[in-house]
């Protein structure tokens, strides 16, 4: 779906559900990464229900953001112990995670889709 194409069939319940998932992602800093776990579980639960809609892209976006962030976090821990480089990667992934969460929430707020395959999607 083109990122500028508005959502044709609006489901307010699905939209609100996605906004809650993005808010849970956005609260990661305050909850020590617990709320994104809840968000990704909710995303997996809704994944099959929204299979044939634009909301599926948002769910994939949330899931990919979570798993990439977790992978970089796990890789960063030994890098902290070995070289101190892990602090840089943790900072970068934290900023990236926050950006993707805010961007996804903004896109669903504007009734727009996202491209879950892009690493960094600009407005």
Fold and architecture overview:
Helix 1 runs antiparallel to helix 3, helix 3 runs antiparallel to helix 4 and helix 4 runs antiparallel to helix 5. The chain is mostly helical and 123 residues long. The longest helix is centred in the middle third of the chain and has 28 residues. It starts with 11 loop residues before the first helix and ends in a 14-residue tail after the last helix.
Short recap of the structure:
The protein is an all-alpha fold and 123 residues long. It is 68% helix and 0% strand. Helix 1 runs parallel beside helix 4 (55-82) and helix 3 runs antiparallel to helix 4 (55-82).
How many distinct beta strands? 0
Helices and strands: which structural class?
A: mainly alpha
Run of helices and strands: HHHHH
Number of helices: 5
Spatial shape: elongated
| Estimated radius of gyration | 15 Å
Give the N-to-C terminal Cα separation.
Answer: 15 Å
The main β sheet shows up as: none
Residue share in β-strands: under 5%
């Amino acid at each position: 779906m083109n990122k500028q194409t508005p959502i044709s069939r609006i489901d307010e319940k699905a939209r609100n559900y996605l906004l809650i998932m993005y808010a849970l992602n956005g609260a990661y800093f305050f909850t020590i990464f617990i709320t994104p776990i809840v968000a990704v579980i909710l995303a997996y639960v809704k994944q099959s229900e929204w299979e044939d809609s634009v909301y599926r892209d948002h769910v994939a976006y949330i899931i990919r953001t979570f798993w990439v962030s977790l992978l970089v976090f796990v890789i960063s821990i030994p890098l902290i112990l070995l070289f101190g480089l892990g602090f840089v990667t943790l900072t970068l992934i934290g900023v990236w995670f926050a950006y993707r969460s805010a961007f996804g929430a903004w896109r669903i707020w504007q009734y727009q889709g996202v491209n879950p395959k892009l690493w960094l999607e600009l407005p």
